[in-house]
Amino acid sequence: MNWSDPYHYVGAVGVVLVLVGIWRTSSGKWRQNSVWYELDTIVGAGLLLLYQIHMKAYIVMPINIALVIISFRGLSSFAERYAVREKKQIVKRLKKKR
Questions:
Q1: From CA 98, how far away is CA 51, in angstroms rounded?
Q2: What's the pLDDT score for residue 22?
Q3: pLDDT in tens, 69-91
């Protein structure tokens, strides 16, 4: 492996991010629906996709494409839950003012 190619660093960072997310989730430091886990997975898998495109490693790309899609769905679920919670808090504050 030629480390003068910056794509190797991109791939290495991607692997570290995905593995850190999995490790922190399995050790209980993050929940599976944690925004940090989802962000780590999206960024890590995205970096791995860039690396795989550069290296023409197309056979393993579906795994990382699936990770990005699943994590994006997790982030959108997080955003939906956050919006519902904020709406409930606003309604609660308005009721207190009346």
A1: 57
A2: 86
A3: 988 888 887 778 788 888 888 88
Question: Which pLDDT belongs to residue 80?
Answer: 81
The tokens for 91 are 């309604």
1 in a structural domain? no
Find the length of the chain.
98
CA 9/CA 31 separation, integer angstroms:
28
The Cα–Cα gap between 64 and 70 comes to 10
| Cα separation of the two ends of the chain | 68
> Is 78 domain-assigned?
yes
Rounded-to-integer distance, Cα 91 and Cα 67, Å = 36
The structural domain count of the chain equals: 1
